[in-house]
Amino acid sequence: MIESYLKVEHAQPLSGVLEVAGAKNAVLVIMASLLLVDGKSTLRNVPASSDVWLMKLLLEEIGAVVEFDVYNHILTVDTSGIHCWQVNQLIMKKMRASILLAGPLLVRFGKADVAVPGGCVLGARSLDFHINNFKKMGTVVEQDGHFLKLKTVQPSITAAKLILEYPSVGATENLLMAAVGAHGSTTIVNAALEPEVIDLITVLKKMGAAITIQPPATIVVEGGMPLTPIDHTIIPDRLEAGSLLLAAAVTGGSLYLKDMPESMLDLFLYKLKEMGHSISIGDGGVGIHLVATARPQAVSFKTGPFPSFPTDLQAPMMLAQAIAEGSCIIEETVFESRLGHVDQLIKMGANIDIINNMSVKVKGVKELIGGQVQATDIRASCALVLAGLVAHGTTYIAGVHHWKRGYESLDLKLNSLGAHIEIFDECSSISIKKEDFGAVVRNF
Ligand code: EPU
Predict the structure, then answer these.
(1) pLDDT attached to residue 3
(2) Poorest-confidence range of 109-118, 172-181, 361-370?
(3) In the predicted model, is pLDDT for residue 277 greater than 70?
(4) What's the CA gap between 289 and 285, in Å, rounded?
(5) Which of 220, 308, 332, 356 shows its CA 20 to 30 Å from the CA of 168?
(6) Where does the pLDDT of residue 116 fall: very low under 50, low under 70, confident under 90, or very high at 90 and above?
(7) Is 120 among the residues known to form the active site?
(8) Whole-number Cα distances in Å, 152 to 133, 156, 199, 225
(9) Best of 52, 169, 309, 338 to mutate for ligand 1, by most ligand atoms within 8 A of CB?
């Protein structure tokens, strides 16, 4: 038997009303951005996912004082004592988002020593857009194996016109934070405009930065403004919201997410409607109510940068197609290797043909069967939990750390709707402290 695992029982229709947690992918970069100011900032609606604990550790390692009131989801970060531009390489190798410290550290110190980050294995996930554009901003980058040393030629980073070949979320965020500290005007053409990037822009503007977005996807930053600490409430997590809606949909239930804006999930909701599910939206576009159809139809979809279908919902949405009537084609266009869940769903009885490493044909089946499966990334773990909810019998999912990296207590939220999910984990505490560091790194 696998040692750490999620145990998921077949569920009756899941129904209820829930609030969505704060967005993991917004809070990670916003925590990094606090290095741009001196003093104490407050973030609210912060999810206690393990990636947030890792980012807290990274900030503490370089001198920040970070307090996390998990119960109230309030995180305070005092950056007055930041003394170091070298990021802990053991942690960096475990979490790709740690590369987001490079931009703010370059602004603060004119240098940043980082490791090539890890995190979910989703293909090559190169850093060329980050590095090439830092170079355009007057930074010398030396790579020594897995280590990167960045240093500005001038005393500070310089403004520039930057063009992204692809609207990379992480590169846009890193360059935005660097641009805020560069005197003059920086333009980022073909920028990512995901809701999490917009939340970062809101934070940078609260700090005092001058940033405008020009259609279709250009961000202009007038850098060099004095910046001050902020108080900010993180946006709701559209990916947790999507996962919860899918849980209600695949079990034939109903769910109202009271705080979730429709605008962050437009295409996803459109596809759920196309499957036959009923979706209604609350006043002012906030609040999403799903009532599942008894006979969902399979729909084809293709992932892409926002506002296209989110890559982070591809895996759980594939599970929904695997038990729908008819067949469909699913194309992953963002990452070249994000189909780790396919083999595992096939193991549970799904009928999925791999066309190539970025697309599959799914033919709906009447039932899935529980068994032992392995989660390979955060969103794959979600797809397998949803599969466990609809499968006959019990499903055991190894790779609990992926689940915990992405979600705070999503298992408990699902249980509150009627699911039976248990986590058996040797590293069961959600609070990760410095003294737990060895265990944390082992578990990632
Ligand atoms: N890419 C490059 N060069 C670069 C940067 C990216 O080729 O320098 C490629 C990547 O290999 C990938 C594509 O561009 O094929 C998009 O990558 P992007 O940079 O947009 O992704 P990211 O910043 O590494 C963030 C999220 C991911 C989410 C993607 C896409 C965080 C911490 N991570 O990653 O979230 O899937 O944007 O929306 O914000 C997750 O939460 O499970 C997750 C993986």
Answers:
(1) 74
(2) 109-118
(3) yes
(4) 11
(5) 356
(6) confident
(7) yes
(8) 12, 6, 27, 19
(9) 169
Q: With left for phi above 0 and alpha for psi between -120 and 50, is residue 280 left, alpha or beta? A: beta
Q: Cis bond leading into 155, ω under 30°?
A: no
What is the per-residue pLDDT across 140-172, written as a single tens digit (0 to 9) for each?
Answer: 999 877 788 999 999 899 999 999 999 999 999
pLDDT class of 2 with cuts at 50, 70, 90: low
Q: Is 54 in the pocket of ligand 1 (CB under 6 A)?
A: no
Q: Is the CB of 129 under 6 A from ligand 1?
A: yes
Q: How far is CA 76 from CA 56, 101, 230, 234, 314, in A?
A: 10, 17, 10, 13, 33
Q: Return the ligand 1 atom nearest residue 194 CA.
A: 38
305 within 8 A of 334, measured Cβ to Cβ: yes
**Pair of tokens at residue 272:** 């759920």
Pairing of strands 254-261, 286-291: antiparallel
Contact 253, 296 (CB under 8 A): no
User: How does strand 15-18 pair with strand 254-261?
Assistant: parallel
Decide: 148 and 168 in contact? Cβ < 8 Å: no
pTM over 0.85: yes
Q: Which residue has the tokens 């920028």?
A: 191
Q: Which residues are paired to 305 by β-bridges?
A: none
For residue 120, the model assigns a pLDDT of 56
Task: Tokens for 39, please give them.
Answer: 């003093």
Question: How many angstroms is it from 170 CA to the middle of ligand 1?
Answer: 6
